[in-house]
Structures are given as C-alpha cells and as structure tokens.
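Hi support team,

I submitted a single chain yesterday and got back a structure, but I'm not sure I'm reading the token output correctly. Could someone confirm the output below corresponds to the sequence I sent? I've pasted both exactly as they appear in my results page.

Thanks,
R.
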Amino acid sequence: MAPEETPDATPAQTPARSHPYDNALSLEALRGLAHPMRIQIMNELSDFGPLTASGLAERLGESSGATSYHLRQLAKHNLIVEEEGKGSARERWWKMAPGGVTIGSPETLATPAGREATELISREWAQNNERRLNAFLRYGLDVLGTEWSEASTLSTAHLQLNQEQLAEFGREYHLLGERLRAKWGKTEGDRELAPGERRVQVQFNAFPLIDGNEQ
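Hi R., thanks for writing in. Yes, this is the structure output for that exact sequence:
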C-alpha cells in the first residue's frame, strides 16, 4: 500500500524525505487518530484551516465538550497544534501540525491493530473527499459562479503501468505540488486568505483496479 497523506500535507515545509514513510504515524499515534470524530475534526482543520472547539462543534453537530476532548487527544499525539497569537485561554484555536499526516507504513500494516486503524482512517478520508466533491458538483456553480467552475478540473485517466511506474507517477505528482507551491509562495497552508483566494482541495488517486472476478 502506498503512503496516504491528508490533503493539507505540505512537503515543501520540511526537508526532502529519503523514504516516503519517514514521517508516517507510529502505531500509537495511528490508533489515537482512529476515531470517527477525530478524523472528522482533522478533515475540518485540513480543509478549512484553524478552528475552535465551539466552531468545530457547530460544524459537526456535536457538543463543544466532545470536540474539546478529542482535540486534546489529537494534540497529545502532535497531530494538531495550537494557533499561536490567536484566541484566549478559554477559546483556543487549533490547526494541523506542519507536514500533514502520512499513514500506511509497512511497520504499522504488519500488525492487526495497525491495519485496522489504517483502513478506518483511509475509509473516512475517502468518504470526506467524496462529500467535498459532491458539494462542489451540486452547489459550486450557484455559490462560486462560472469563473471558478471553469478554473476547476475534474479528470480521470487510465494507464497501463507496472509497480515501479505507478510508484514513480505518485512521486512525480508530489514533486509537482512542491514546485508549484514554491512558485506561488503558498507554503503556509493555514495563513489568512488573500483577496481572491479560496481554500482548494486537490484530490488525486492512482491505484490498480481490482476486477470483480478477483475478489
């Protein structure tokens, strides 16, 4: 299984990794994240930037006590950090930790607990990506107008690749993201939006198809 990263992962902020799993979550951190509400919280922070416990509670339809508890658990594993210079002792702002989140290392997949946690997180991430895409397809034109719709790209391609070529495809994709972020000066994922900017989610999936007869 190739490493999975949250959409907010920003490799340009950190030194180049010698191996794609160098920054993968440990089993302890992976199990700490593997809770549906914690994954939802991570999705909200990744997709929309810093939020408070009460802000998350409103977005997720939960109590602020519940979101506060899960925020503390995420912070315990250094998955999120407090936004410095913002908020107060009673109302703290939280954001994704620099570098994003990578899961799926061979070490964690070698254990039943690690595999179960990885599969749960992967499913929740995939469902969130689908929700975001469906919201854009349903409301994007009315909310954003034709210019943003025309600037967006929805693309599916099929290639015939061997394992090495598929891995190279993924590496080239990440390098392209790093190069464009550096070109545009967009290495700070949680900074305030400049005029004309919106939060943008990039969805990219490259995987071998499994025929129904193979299952």
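A quick pointer for reading it: The chain has a mean pLDDT of 87. Let us know if anything else looks off.

Best,
Support desk
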